[in-house]
Amino acid sequence: MKLYGIPNCDTVKKARAALAARGVTYEFHDFKKHGVTEAMLAGWLKQVGWQRLLKKTGPTWAKLPQEVKDGIKDDASALPVLLQHPNIIKRPVLESSGKVLATGYNENEYKELKP
């Protein structure tokens, strides 16, 4: 399993604690240190769609020009914005063998994960 996010993000911290409590082994991918790739984002978008992957709360989203926000209408238009501003990716993203298991943190989803 691989968990993608930013270490100081509260939802990432909750997800990491939940995985540890269940004994789930995972690799952590820090967006700030390791970045995100176009291929990675394209795969996630194909699986979950831009509405589920885009985080519209927080200072990065708020600072984006309105025309950029309004220009996001589908996966294709979301991709370059997510690539340029990884802080607007809903965190964390949890995947296993290339399949997205969860975006964001939901306690019930994490309880159902198999160690």
What do these coordinates show?
The chain is an alpha+beta fold. Helices cover 49% and strands 15% of the residues. Strand 3 (93-96) and strand 4 form a beta hairpin. Helix 3 packs across helix 7 (75-84). The longest helix has 12 residues, at 10-21. It starts with a strand and ends with a helix.
Helix/strand/pairing category = alpha+beta
The value of Rg in angstroms is 14 Å
Q: Tell me, rounded to a whole number, the average pLDDT.
A: 94
Largest sheet: 4 strands, mixed
Order of helices and strands, N to C?
EHEHHHHHHEEH
**Which consecutive residue ranges, at least 5 long each, have pLDDT under 50?**
none
Lateral arrangement of strands in the main beta sheet: 2-1-3-4
Assigned CATH architecture:
3-Layer(aba) Sandwich
What global shape is seen?
Answer: globular
Separation of the first and last Cα atoms: 10 Å
CATH topology name: Glutaredoxin
Helix tally equals: 8
**Total strand count, please?**
4
What helical percentage do the residues reach? 40-55%
Give the name of the CATH superfamily. Answer: Glutaredoxin
CATH C-level class is: Alpha Beta
Question: What fraction of residues sit in β-strands?
Answer: 5-15%
Number of domains: 1
